[in-house]
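A further point concerns the way the authors explain their paired sequence and structure data. Each protein is reduced to its one-letter sequence and a matching series of backbone shape codes. An entry of this sort, consisting of the sequence and the corresponding backbone structure tokens, reads as follows:
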Amino acid sequence: MVKTRFAPSPTGFLHLGGARTCLFSWLYARKSKGKFILRIEDTDRLRSKKEYLEEILESLSWLGIDWDEIFYQSQRLSIYREYAQKLVEEGKAYYREGAVFFKYQFDEVEIDDLIRGKVTFRELPKQEEVIIKSDGTPTYNFACTVDDALMGITHVIRGEDHLSNTPKQILMYKALGVFPPRFAHIPMILSQSGGKMSKREGATSIREYRAGGYLPQAVVNYLLLLGWSPGGNREIISLEEAIQTFELKGVNKNPSTFSQDKFDWLNSQYIKLKPIDELTTLVKEFLEEKKFLPQKVTLDYLRKVVALFKERISKLGDLMDWGYFCFYDDFSYSPDTQDILKRKLSKEVEVLIERLSQIEDFTKENIEKEFRQTAHFLRLKAKDLVHPTRIALTGRKIGPGLFETMEVLGKEKVIERLKRLCHWWEERN
């Protein structure tokens, strides 16, 4: 039976690279109807933190990744010491200065990597290595080897940054008398500029993407596209579909390049695909968690706001910026609107206010009809009235459709904000 694992260290939050490694390992197990093991490598007592562990577990659950078993290396220290002692007794390791050193019996090591193909290692950087430190805790390579062997891991799927550890671990497997698992090393993710990922260019934790309003389905989908393709030039694929189609041989051998624009676009597609009621519930929970949503906002009004922006936002967090005017009145006119506002149209806007006030059924159709008739009456081009009206209502030059926006805000709010603009003009003349 196929058994894979993901072995995060709780010394930091879960980032895209680690999440992708976990996803590929999880998919391979699920596709093979095998088991997926989560192993927490928490032997670094100083750097391992409870908050990091909680975030890793929460982020994986949020992404839809589950596990069949979970192990904590900090609870297995006696096991590593037992196997180190066994190697000492067999003459394959020795004590020195309170630590246990492993003696590499090196000859050429060759692996058939499931992604990279045949890889040959002809030398090691050193002849010996600490496997149990003087404080009694194991080093990475030894603990990893012992655990993979005892847990029956059949396939180790990890980042290519671990490739240099592979020959060391294979020699430890050999010393322990255990047949090694198959290896698959996933190429790294490059930043948009072609270098190492940085926080400015995508090396953000899953927690931060969640806090920014990205949907878990979109994050998983994007992770899949970083090095693997479902075929047929498809870009939208669900986790359920991926389980059925994922193959390690389909993973690209070359590094993937992170694109924030592509990520945002993909998230926007998932937002568009959400039914309005489901999306409204997500938005409500998101805005409430941010303590952004005023208590007076009704679910019906929020649904209208969501519908207004659904086709225009790339993440839920955009509503806190672009949709601010829908919830609060204390916005100012954006600096780039001054070229439009320098043309004083207070008298014309007052006429618009009067005529809008007479609309009984304040729908976008009736609003647009009255608006255009008013512009014609005032001998203005419609755009000459559209621009200042939009600024009055939203504080910006661009945004959702003006008449749809006016319907959502309602007649009272529209008139109130148009009067505010007239007052603003009068104060400056």
